[in-house]
Design goal:
Elements (H helix, E strand, L loop, with lengths): L9 H5 L7 E2 L12 H6 L10 E11 L4 E8 L4 E8 L4 E9 L6 H4 L8
Antiparallel strand pairs: 1-2, 2-3, 3-4, 4-5
C-alpha cells in the first residue's frame, strides 16, 4: 500500500480543471505514469464504497497546467474514480469520486462534454 493517498474534496478537484482540459485524442497518448498501484492501494472508505472496474473510460489532459485526469469506471452509473496526475512532477496529486450527472453546475459540465448521461 502506498504511504500517501490524497482524497480531493470537490473544491480541490475543481481547482484541477480549467478551459485547457481536453479529452486525449488517441490511445497512444496515455497517462504519464502507472497509476494502478495507487488505485490498488485505496481502501473502501477512500472511494466512498464504490468498486472500480479496472477500466479507464476517459482520459483527459491539460497540457498547459501539466495535469491529467484518469476516469476509471465504477460499479455505480455515471460515477468515476478519477485519479489526478501532475505530469510536471510525475506524481499523483490525488483522487476524487466524480459523480457525473446533468444537474452538476455548468462550470463543471463544460470540462467533460464527452460524458454521456
Amino acid at each position: 500500500m502506498l504511504s500517501f493517498m490524497a482524497r480531493l474534496n470537490q473544491d480541490e478537484f475543481e481547482l484541477t480543471m480549467d478551459d485547457d482540459i481536453k479529452l486525449a485524442s488517441d490511445e497512444s497518448d496515455g497517462p504519464c505514469l502507472d497509476f494502478w498501484p495507487y488505485v490498488d492501494g485505496l481502501d473502501y472508505e477512500a472511494v466512498d464504497g464504490v468498486a472500480d472496474q479496472f477500466s479507464v473510460d476517459y482520459f483527459f489532459k491539460n497540457s498547459v497546467r501539466g495535469l491529467e485526469h484518469v476516469m476509471i469506471r465504477t460499479d455505480l452509473p455515471h460515477t468515476y474514480l478519477t485519479v489526478v496526475i501532475d505530469t510536471n512532477e510525475q506524481k499523483i496529486v490525488g483522487h476524487h469520486v466524480f459523480e457525473a450527472n446533468p444537474n452538476l453546475p455548468v462550470h463543471i459540465l463544460q470540462f467533460y462534454p464527452e460524458l454521456d448521461f
